[in-house]
Amino acid sequence: MPNISEFSLTKLVSGIKKKEFTSEEVTKSFISNAEKSKKLNTYITECFDEAIKYAKNFDKKKEYGGLLPGIPIAVKDLFCTKNIKTTAGSKILNNFIPTYESTVTNNLWSEGAFLLGKLNCDEFAMGSSNETSFFGNVTNPFGDKLVPGGSSGGSASALAANLTPATIGTDTGGSIRQPASFTGIVGLKPTYGRCSRWGIVAFASSLDQAGPMTKNVEDCALLLEAMSGYDPKDSTSVNTKVENYSSKLTNKVKDLKIGIPKEYRVDNMPDEINNLWKKGVDYLKDAGAKIKNISLPHTMYALPAYYIVAPAEASSNLARYDGVKYGHRAKGNNLVEMYENTRSEGFGDEVKRRILIGTYVLSSGYYDAYYLKAQKVRQLIKNDFDKAFNEVDAILTPSTPNSAFKMGDKKDDPVSMYLNDIFTVPVNLSGLPAISVPAGYDKNNLPLGLQLIGKPFDEQTILNLSLAIEKRANFNKKINVWWN
Amino acid sequence: MSIDKDTVKHISKLAKISLDEKKINSLSKDLSSIMKFIEKLNELNTDKINPLTSIINASLRTRKDEIKDGKIRDQILKNSPDKNEEFFVVPKMVE
């Protein structure tokens, strides 16, 4: 019998339901992998003993209800978990034990899943390589010293290395889709408002959204269905029906209209990314979709606008870390000195950069020139998409302008690091859903993803199109285990 | 626009983050390159554009102002680095 940990989430669910194997067997197989894989540094907190206990109790049940019966799941350490340490990858939250559970994780537990552990991520989700975490770099299973992308890098690596059957991340500018592309997995950022933000450590509140990261598209539909939904506790959560994404999933995409935006052909983009994009077009044509060239003229302004809006919101959100209510506290001779020393010791370099940029663009005399300007540009970017979606059902682009890079390569140059998110950021600024689906490899055998962008609340269409690509791309997910 | 060392010092005061001289130097360089990148937006004329205020096409909901949880003082105090009975403790402010 093949190793259970290599099964898809969907196969695990059906196997448990049919009693082909127990929840305990499933849980132990992932724990055994995780214990041999410390070198990847994916787990910040392991909940293995509790997970086995939960699984044993689960196996005694007569009826298995829910979408995820008896499934252990490790999640990004940005989701607050009751009585389990939640760090956001930061020293300042190194000792924070929430007394409440995030709505999204709670939704998973209501469907029968349980917590396997908390996964490494960039500090406060600020980063594209997982190198800003206080808990150290995460390694990409595709190669030693290779970054997994970020900020949901621990989630992406743990999933690709079979250390969790599925996982959830958060995406503020590409933090689910870029690491998904770098590690050969599927990652979806839902429409803003689809999933509750309640209980997720906040980075940029008008951009943050939680989403599923899975081994294939079918799993992605299932996990999205389990985690989505209206939540009165998040005032931006939208009260629209959650579709039965998994039962409605189909690769019949005939006559759907797919837009190809010319502005995503950026300078210095490697040929292999361009070729992958062309292959994606061919796959969808083969599936009967209609291809249409479109223009999103303000694309090049998305990243600069993002680096005003996101730091501005971050500087406000992170003002709460003052060493008084929770988290790390440093010594100081008076209150202000205590604040200043706490925040200096508690935050890493990238977080400091973003807080300071945010403070600067919001400071007296600069608000109109930067923040207001960025919000106007954001409107223009959103208008581009609104116009495009009058003509097409979805938009196809590469997920990233390059494959996974070496640790240290971009660490000292913030702007070159930011350019990694050039294709993913416009989607967050516009609140749209988008998915990255693995579609091929570069010349070094590193995975590459394609991105499908959908209309608001039309996750179903991009899931269906991804399935059509997945069926044709024949992406081989087998990785040689070199890190044990 | 470049962010000189005095500006870094000023905004770090506003953001309540203490910095040593070495950090101030490196931040001045980093923040200047980020601001240079951001200034690409000045190419666009946005005089007649309304700023985006919400990406969900709905106004924020209102709800009845009523207490639904409450009585969670112990939970709120649980993670405090320094507390005394039902209070957060901070360094002395007033002589």
Structural description of this entry:
The complex is a heterodimer of chains A (484) and B (95). In chain A, helix 7 (217-227) runs antiparallel to helix 16, helix 10 packs across helix 12 (349-362) and helix 10 packs across helix 13. Chain A has 16 helices and 11 strands. With 484 residues, chain A is of the alpha/beta class. The mean pLDDT of chain A is 96. In chain A, strand 7, helix 9 and strand 8 (290-294) form a beta-alpha-beta unit. The longest helix of chain A is centred in the C-terminal third of the chain and has 21 residues, at 368-388. In chain A, strands 4-6-5-10-11-9-7-8 form an 8-stranded mixed beta sheet, with helices on both faces. In chain A, strands 1-3-2 form a 3-stranded mixed beta sheet. Chain A has one domain: Amidase signature (AS) enzymes, CATH 3.90.1300.10. Chain B is mainly alpha-helical and 95 residues long. Chain B has a domain at 5-43: Histone, subunit A (Orthogonal Bundle). Chain B contains 3 helices and 2 strands. Chain B has helices at residues 5-14, 21-38, 73-78, and strands at 83-84, 87-88. In chain B, strands 1-2 form a two-stranded antiparallel sheet. In chain B, a hairpin with a 2-residue loop joins strand 1 (83-84) and strand 2 (87-88). The radius of gyration of chain B is 23 Å and the shape is flat. The two termini of chain B are 43 Å apart. The interface between A and B is large, with 70 and 51 residues.
**Tally of domains of chain A:** 1
**CATH architectural type of one domain in chain B:** Orthogonal Bundle
CATH topology of one domain in chain B, what is it called?
A: Histone, subunit A
Name the beta content range of chain B. under 5%
User: What class would the helix/strand composition of chain A place it in?
Assistant: alpha/beta
Task: List the uncertain runs of chain B.
Answer: none
Largest interface comes to:
A-B, 70 and 51 residues
Average pLDDT metric of chain B:
91
Largest sheet of chain A: 8 strands, mixed
Strand content of chain A: 5-15%
Q: Tally the helices of chain A.
A: 16
